[in-house]
Structure formats: structure tokens, C-alpha cells
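Run log // design_07
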């Protein structure tokens, strides 16, 4: 969606501090936060805790932002910041990554798969996974009744559902949520899979997300048939959009 004008670094007058809230207003034009395709990137760029987020932007000759890199401290890994971006070309990505990252430091790359070719020259990527973004079709969703499933609220206020008996057997919750979407996760004890436990807890969280006015999303790795089966049994459908999740180290070049 970026315009074709050449991108130049945003120039900030000496002494003027641009708040992350002002940056987010500028960046919003590059993202559709009502679309599942942009939802994960939009969460970290626009809605993640501003005290633990930093944005780096480029603009065209009219001062309109054409690309950005967001770096966020998250609970996923306390030692590796999460990195996401939306850039129109490799030159923009390289310039912004040069501003945002430290050479040799590890990061987590979490971005639209179409950004992957733009960063391959400046990031060393390992253990990369391609995730399918599934979106719930509310018309297909039917609540699952399981008396063993206990609904509760996580420490961050998001819904959680758990089945326990001598330890956690299955748990589902929310990785992140924006005003429009929430990403549902589920984990089942490997020894207890294929008993419907994962489906039960995932259904509980899915229902809670719907009741909050948000649309549930489910990200599933290529080849993870059991996880995909849980999602599809509840009415999640593939959007056709792919997200990359990878270990990344900035080369400094």
C-alpha cells in the first residue's frame, strides 16, 4: 500500500521528541487493523505496550510514512525482543533495521511472509516457521461443553481455559489481543492428545473472545495437522495469509 515516491529517513528537528503515539498515527496508514492479514503486525506496531515498544519509520518526500520497523519487549522471550516490519522494498528494510537493531544481538522475527525476502541480506534466520493465519467464522462455531474445562482470567486480563487433574492436561489462552482480534493458542499434554481436551479448552477461549467483541484468530504451523484439526473443528478457516516466526540475528551490514 506504500506510495511509489522515494523513501527518505524521517527528519526530526533538534529538540523535538516524537512520541510513539504520534508515530503510530503515521504508521496506521500502512496497516488495515480490521484485516486478519495485518492483525499480528498491527498489534505489535499499534497496540503493544508503548513503554515496551519502539518504532522506526521512513517517509517519502511529502513526509508520509512508507515503511516501519517495530521492536517490542514481550513475554515470549525476556532476552530477545520481537521484531516486526512493513516495508516496501529491501533498501527501506535495511535502512530501518540498521537504526533499530544491534549487530550480533538475537531477536524474534514475526512478520508477514512477504517481508522475508526484504530482510534476508541483513538478518541471519534460523528455525523459521511459516504460520497459516486462520480466522473464526462465527456462523460455524458451536460451543463445546466439558465439565472438566475451567474458564478463568489470565494475569493480563485475557481469557484462559484449563483442564487439570494432577497437573495441567490442556490449556488455551490468548497470545495477544487488539481492539478487533485476539490470537488463540492451545497446548495439550502430548500423552493425552486426541481425547478432545484441546478442542474443549480452545472452544472455551474462542467463545470468550467472541463475547468480548473481537474476532478470534489461530496461527498454525505448516504440517501441524492435529492443531489445525482443532481449529477447523471449531469453525476457523484459512485466510490464505502466511506469517513467519524465526530466530534472527542482525548482521550489522
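design_07 sequence
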Amino acid at each position: 500500500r506504500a506510495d511509489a515516491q522515494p523513501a527518505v529517513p524521517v527528519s526530526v528537528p533538534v529538540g523535538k521528541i516524537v512520541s510513539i503515539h504520534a508515530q503510530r498515527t503515521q504508521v496506521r496508514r500502512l496497516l488495515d487493523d480490521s484485516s486478519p492479514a495485518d492483525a499480528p503486525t498491527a498489534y505489535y506496531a499499534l497496540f503493544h505496550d508503548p513503554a515496551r515498544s519502539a518504532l522506526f519509520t521512513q517517509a517519502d518526500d511529502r513526509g508520509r510514512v512508507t515503511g516501519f520497523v517495530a521492536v517490542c519487549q514481550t513475554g515470549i522471550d525476556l532476552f530477545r525482543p520481537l521484531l516486526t516490519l512493513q516495508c516496501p522494498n529491501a533498501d527501506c528494510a535495511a535502512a530501518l533495521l540498521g537504526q533499530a537493531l544491534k549487530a550480533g544481538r538475537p531477536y524474534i522475527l514475526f512478520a508477514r511472509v512477504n517481508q522475508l525476502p526484504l530482510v534476508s541480506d541483513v538478518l541471519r534466520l534460523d528455525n523459521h516457521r511459516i504460520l497459516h493465519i486462520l480466522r473464526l467464522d462465527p456462523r460455524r462455531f458451536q460451543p463445546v461443553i466439558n465439565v472438566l474445562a475451567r474458564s478463568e482470567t489470565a494475569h493480563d486480563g485475557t481469557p484462559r481455559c484449563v483442564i487439570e487433574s494432577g497437573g495441567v492436561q490442556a490449556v488455551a489462552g490468548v497470545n495477544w489481543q487488539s481492539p478487533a482480534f485476539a490470537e488463540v493458542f492451545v497446548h495439550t499434554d502430548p500423552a493425552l492428545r486426541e481425547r478432545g481436551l484441546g478442542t474443549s479448552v480452545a472452544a472455551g477461549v474462542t467463545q470468550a473472545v467472541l463475547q468480548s467483541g473481537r474476532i478470534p484468530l489461530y496461527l498454525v504451523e505448516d504440517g501441524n495437522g492435529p492443531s489445525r484439526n482443532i481449529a477447523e473443528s471449531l469453525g476457523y478457516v484459512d485466510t490464505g495469509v502466511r506469517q513467519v516466526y524465526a530466530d534472527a540475528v542482525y548482521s550489522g551490514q
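Helices lie at 20-27, 39-47, 90-100, 116-119, 197-211, 225-234.
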